[in-house]
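In practice, a research group might receive sequence data for several interacting partners and want a quick structural hypothesis before committing to experiments. The following worked case mirrors that situation: the sequences arrive first, and a predicted assembly follows.
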Amino acid sequence: MATKKTILFLGATGGVGLSALRRSLAAGHTCIALCRTPANLTAQLNTTTTSNSNTTTLPPNLHIITGNAHNPSDLHACLTHPSTAPSGGVDIIVSSIGARPTLRGMSDAHVCEKGMEVLLGALRAVKEERVGGKVPRLVAVSSTGISEVARDVPILLAGLYKVLLHTPHVDKKKMERLVVAAGGKGEVEWTLVRGSFYTSGSATEGLVRVGVEDPVKGVREKEAVGYTISREDVGKWMFEECLDKEGREWVGKAAILTY
Ligand SMILES: NC(=O)c1ccc[n+]([C@@H]2O[C@H](COP(=O)([O-])OP(=O)(O)OC[C@H]3O[C@@H](n4cnc5c(N)ncnc54)[C@H](OP(=O)(O)O)[C@@H]3O)[C@@H](O)[C@H]2O)c1
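A structural hypothesis for the assembly, expressed as tokens:
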């Protein structure tokens, strides 16, 4: 039986984070979700509303904290939440925050870079409080199309990606560099998750192909080039490979997920 963990979710109202959160809750892990608007999360969770009142029953292993992933004190509140006490600190952090396209460009061109800076700063601030100097796992959702090692998007899409996704890709690259640098200092044990173009489809069985890259050594260990993957499947893969089991084979790797 998998050990129960304490997992912090940043970006749980988005499709990938929600898919991983739902599965983690069902598996009995203690989950903390930092949300700017908690109602965006509760509305999407399978909750029951009693007929006589408007109260919503949330899973007992879910702790929602209202706040912004760019605010150090909100991150501190998550990392020191009373529910983390039994495991001596958060075991795993899943960061899947992202910006949305608007008529004037992305809603926040630096959302991932800034979020990672703040998260890593908050982790440094609580380092001494972590039981036995335990190093937290960090699963950071990034993107295909940004590898400096080898192409991971189909040749037909490569040009389009460069033009249309330039801004979010610069942001993701900066985020990845922060993650890898923190790993180099022994502050986190990281995995980067690079999905291809997202769809809103359901999770599948046996259809996901997984490529592997070692960004530190600059080596592509396994190829997987494809067009799309559903958010549900990205979250499912993260849950199964990085959250529910130890998943040590993914530490220090970028996983490329596609159909
Ligand atoms: N679209 C694609 O094809 C594609 C492909 C590969 C990778 N990606 C990346 O994969 C990641 C996950 O995507 P997704 O579709 O699951 O999510 P999404 O729909 O882009 O949602 C982003 C999430 O980030 C949260 N967020 C943004 N800024 C925040 C802040 N300052 N503080 C707290 N929360 C914040 C949002 O919360 P609110 O509810 O408060 O808005 C939401 O939960 C994103 O980084 C995305 O860019 C996308």
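Before designing any experiment, note the following. The CA atoms of residues 6 and 86 lie 9 Å apart. The pocket of NAP is lined by residues 11, 13-17, 36-37, 40, 68-70, 96-98, 111-112, 141, 143, 168, 195, 197-198, 231 (CB under 6 Å).
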